[in-house]
Description:
By secondary structure, the protein is mainly α.
Amino acid sequence: MVGHGSSWDGAPTSPLPVGPYLGDTGQVPAGQAGWAPPGNPRTAGPPGTGAASRGRPRRRRRWLARTAVVVLGLILAGALTLGGLLLVTPSVGDAPARAQALDRQHGAVYPGPAVPARFAASLVSTEDHRFYSEPGIDVFAIGRLIAGRIAGRPDQGGATLYQQLAKMLYTPGRSGVAIEAEQVGLGIKLDLAYPKWQILQMYADVAYFGHNYYGLGAASCGYFGVTPARLSWPEAAMLAGLVQAPSADDPIAHFAAARARESHVLGRLVATGHLSQAQAASFYRQPLDLVGGSPGACTAPSTP
Length: 304
């Protein structure tokens, strides 16, 4: 006869622990002989209550922690990179002097006429719609550009107006990743050193608009025979569209290409809330009277 605490072969045993399925004696109560340990499929609880389900929140927390570390690392690396760029790039205190020298080299007037609201809206909407809120760099555009290059997609563009101005004043004719990085640093410094209106003024004064027209005043007078202040919406949109590819979109040499750019700029003006769709369509139907005249015939400021 086997006593409590002994097995059938005479080896000592330990009594089962008292639990919800056992009586005070550690024996299986009558009627529950079919009980199995937790985890047995016969008696498993509702879905989501097992050990695997309990492990999911831990895995999710570990994943979130790793992601946070990666993101913080990227932010830190970006901050250190920008800090390094600010240290190695030159001062931009001479930007107005450089703009004046560039205009003198091209026979353009400096400073040119004040940038009118229609051209400013057209340029910003097309080239850098976050211009008035960004600190000289558009992190969203740069992220899109990097992702596009990794994926092998065509260049999505990411240069702010500050970076484009830095290219014209400090790195003309130069290209490459190192030069683009330098333009980023210079763009941030330009934002810190000059108000928005002055950035737009220097940009308009030195930009090339095709057909040998340097500066907004020369382009406005040369293409349309009016000062910048008297530009219509379709004229302003066309000129703003030229800065991306001034020779390829020259309206006198390549009218269809220039009209396509004008249509794009009018669409951007709709997207940024400056025009309604009906207004943009109406402006696009307006004829453009190109004169192809002298760039210096009408550069004196005037009131619209």
